[in-house]
Write a structure and sequence with these properties.
This protein is of the alpha/beta class. It has 15 helices and 22 strands. The strands form six sheets. Strands 14-15-16-13-12-18-19 form a seven-stranded mixed sheet, with helices on both faces. A six-stranded mixed sheet has the order 9-8-7-10-11-21, sandwiched between helices. Strands 5-6-22 form a three-stranded antiparallel sheet, with no helix packed on it. The structure holds NADPH dihydro-nicotinamide-adenine-dinucleotide phosphate.
């Protein structure tokens, strides 16, 4: 397999100005795949100024039809290279190949969605008291920084790059240090599809060094970030100095609420993958399971049975549902959450141990006996760990659900429509699924309440977020 190993600036691949590199390690084998150029502050300067030149010199003035044509071409080229992109994604972070294929297909659809959106995205005419003619324009911002994480590298990059380009901006994309391969290839393929040089710059490298320089760069007008709440908060602080726009998609500790009247078999058989998919490294993971007491024992039995059936193994095999964690370090972080002799009230019903195989694997764990104050119950684990608790009253359960500082996602299982509506309104989260676990639809807004974020990815809400709203008044 060929690995992209250079930065992508102004339509061409190039090394880092100070020749620094970062190793990319396959977490399934713990072997180094490739050394990738790591951008410095000088590369940030080159990428941002090049993007600004393209923004002013051409892209912002493309007609909507021409811009849409380029975006449709990008989707087509991504489809032609779907298998290659899926393989890159799978080896870099240990993602099961079948998931990687679905996510790459979604990335291509994201370009198509926003290509189609370009001709359906417009302002308003407003009947102002003065008479005359008043109307609004949605104008591009300029150069946008898209900073993305390692858990869903390709789709999240497209969720930011596609609406930003569609709205007429240029983008500097910074992938996470563990997962720059598919992003670098996205830059090359988009250029091959006809995207003008400088429209999409891709800089691999360290967040603390060049990521910070990118956020601080005076020509960056917006930072669209997905990652941890700590880094999101830092970016918001830095951005506040120049009143830069930010959108932040951050951590979560999402509930999975099972009422006694739910289809228990369906809820229990689908719930393991609502938390263990992507090896639990998912901001939407339903890691806190609330079960109405009368069905608690039964649900736990079914949930553990279903968890034991999940196929853990080689990410390259089509039947694998769970691969390794992204790194040995991430596995160690996850293990610090697991019960020890100091937390005798916590009980592990299955998993939590390392399987006897090479790679950063961890068997998915189901934990009961959690108290509200337990770290495993309150904090985002970002690994294959689910906690299950019983509840007696709806009000009590909702108070506990909403006590979390996070509010990203969640599921709710009941056959009572009134209860589904009542509880859906009360759960403090940006997205919620009833009788299923689907949080992400590219046509619908995705993002969080409270410390889970600010602004929205996907849908038309994301495209609005990459524009400034201008009002123009023409006197009669
Ligand atoms: P981070 O928030 O550290 O990283 C996300 C992205 O931000 C990466 O591209 C990273 O670059 C970049 N970054 C880091 N520091 C800065 C900075 N000062 N300025 C600009 N960019 C920066 O997440 P981690 O990968 O370290 O994961 C840590 C935890 O974050 C996870 O365990 C999980 O709890 C949470 N997380 C949540 C995600 C979500 O989807 N909501 C996604 C990923 C993580 P680099 O990789 O080079 O450091």
């Amino acid at each position: 397999m060929q690995f992209p190993n250079q930065l992508f600036i102004d339509g061409r691949s190039c090394g880092a100005s100070d020749n620094k590199t970062l190793p990319i390690i396959n977490p399934a084998t713990e072997e180094v795949l490739v050394e990738v150029a790591a951008a410095s502050e000088r590369d940030v300067e080159a990428a941002v100024s090049g993007a600004q030149r393209t923004f002013e010199g051409s892209w912002r003035d493309y007609t909507p039809g021409r811009r849409a044509e380029v975006m449709f071409q990008i989707a087509r080229v991504l489809r032609e290279h779907a298998e290659e992109l899926s393989q890159l994604e799978s080896v870099a972070i240990g993602k099961p190949i079948s998931d990687a294929r679905d996510e790459v297909a979604m990335g291509a659809r994201t370009f198509e969605y926003y290509a189609g959106a370009i001709s359906k995205f417009y302002g308003q005419t407003i009947p102002v008291a003065r008479g005359g003619f008043d109307f609004t324009l949605r104008q591009p911002m300029g150069v946008v920084a898209a900073i993305v994480p390692w858990n869903f590298p390709f789709p999240i990059a497209t969720w930011k790059v596609a609406p930003a380009l569609a709205a007429g901006n240029c983008v500097v994309l910074k992938p996470a240090r563990q997962s720059p391969l598919s992003a670098l290839r996205l830059g090359e393929l988009a250029a091959r599809a006809g995207l003008p040089d400088g429209c999409l710059q891709v800089l691999a490298g360290s967040g603390e060094e060049m990521g910070d320089a990118l956020v601080k760069h005076p020509l960056i007008r917006k930072i669209s970030f997905t990652g941890s709440t700590a880094v999101g908060s830092h970016i918001m602080q830095v951005a506040s100095r120049d009143i830069k726009r930010v959108s932040l998609e951050l951590g979560g500790k999402s509930p999975n609420i099972i009422f006694a009247d739910a289809d228990l078999e369906k809820a229990a058989s689908t719930s393991p993958m609502s938390v263990f998919a992507n090896t639990g490294q998912d901001c939407c993971a339903r890691s806190r399971v609330f079960v109405e007491r009368s069905v608690y024992e039964k649900f736990v039995e079914l949930f553990v049975q279903a968890t034991r059936k999940v196929v853990i193994g080689d990410p390259a095999k089509a039947e694998t549902q769970i691969g390794p964690l992204v790194s040995a370090q991430q596995r160690e972080v996850v293990e610090t959450f697991l019960p020890t002799a100091k937390t005798p009230h916590l009980k592990v019903l299955c998993g939590g141990d390392r399987p006897a195989r090479k790679g950063c694997y961890l068997n998915p764990a189901v934990v009961v006996g959690c108290e509200t104050s337990d770290r495993i119950w309150r904090e985002e684990v970002f690994g294959p760990v689910a906690c299950v608790r019983a509840f007696d009253r709806e009000e009590e359960m909702l108070a506990e659900v909403n006590a979390s500082p996070y509010g990203l996602s969640g599921s709710l299982w009941t056959k009572d429509l009134n209860r589904a509506l009542r509880v859906s309104r009360r759960v403090e989260s940006g997205v919620l699924s009833v009788n299923c676990h689907n949080s992400v639809h590219l046509e619908a807004p995705f993002g969080g309440f409270k410390q889970s974020g600010l602004g929205r990815d996907l849908g038309m809400a994301a495209m609005e977020g990459y524009t400034e709203l201008k009002n123009i008044y023409i006197a009669e």
